[in-house]
């Protein structure tokens, strides 16, 4: 789909995306690049990173890739420093690397729980921690009239209620949202850095839906999906463009839910016609006072 934003909305910006070589992360890389940003992608698999960089470059987007694991502080430091060395500065950090699998709590080992916490929550914090010097107002490579940089954390809606077989990811994303809010407060105040999140719903053609989505979601049942369709990676990417651009300059500390209203929904417990009828009967009864005197006579 064509973007509703001007193509130069991120012109001159340098963005580093963890998990930026595949899935939603890659679509954000692409849309950021199409809107003028230079892109660095970080991922665990070198072949995936290399192929993402080639695809971005074939679109005319300045791009570079680094293999690395967000669980390793030395990798985070090296990739951030290499990005700045390559492009001269860092404006936008997107934390999109995530681990996930379905498992019931009793079958999940503490190490399995910790693995997802380490990737999603600790990994997000580690990247932010290593990037702060470059993102803060007046940091290396930033001109004196530049504001501070931007952090975007990719979250989820799993933990708003509770989600079957996702205890580890729900806990990890709850921590991510807390990181988003705390950094928005503390680094917004001290360093002029805006920190926001995006919570995608079920997005078609992603590992998330292929691996995790129940059949009702895959087939788009209206009962649990108000808009009756899966989202597209594009929906998340343009939300990211909005938050990373000056269009979002007063948005700080929020996690934008982009899920078509899915997390709010549950099966309709009664057909609409039945509600109307029942409601009339109940209302008539209510208008008759317990004494038997119709309310119109009271
Ligand atoms: N069910 C239960 N436990 C699992 C599991 C599964 N499907 N996958 C991993 N674990 C547990 C392992 O058993 C291990 O715990 P143990 O040592 O107590 O046995 C722990 O998690 C670490 O597993 P390991 O395979 O060593 O971790 P890893 O670092 O190689 O990768 C993931 C783990 C989660 C990152 C891996 O599943 C992955 O790469 N997923 C792809 C990312 C993804 O799906 N992204 C989409 C996000 S929506």
Automatic annotation (TrEMBL):
Pfam families xref list: adh_short_C2 (PF13561)
SUPFAM superfamilies linked to this entry: NAD(P)-binding Rossmann-fold domains
GO cellular-component term (any): peroxisome
InterPro entries recorded: DECR2-like, NAD(P)-bd_dom_sf, SDR_fam
Top class in the EC scheme: oxidoreductase
Entry EC number(s): 1.3.1.124
GO biological process: fatty acid catabolic process; fatty acid metabolic process
PANTHER family: PEROXISOMAL 2,4-DIENOYL-COA REDUCTASE, PEROXISOMAL 2,4-DIENOYL-COA REDUCTASE [(3E)-ENOYL-COA-PRODUCING]
Name of this protein: 2,4-dienoyl-CoA reductase [(3E)-enoyl-CoA-producing]
GO molecular function: 2,4-dienoyl-CoA reductase (NADPH) activity; oxidoreductase activity, acting on the CH-CH group of donors, NAD or NADP as acceptor; oxidoreductase activity, acting on the CH-OH group of donors, NAD or NADP as acceptor
Entry keyword annotation includes tRNA processing: no
Catalytic activity: a (2E,4E)-dienoyl-CoA + NADPH + H(+) = a 4,5-saturated-(3E)-enoyl-CoA + NADP(+); a (2E,4Z)-dienoyl-CoA + NADPH + H(+) = a 4,5-saturated-(3E)-enoyl-CoA + NADP(+)
Entry keyword annotation includes Oxidoreductase: yes
Keywords from the UniProt entry: NADP, Oxidoreductase
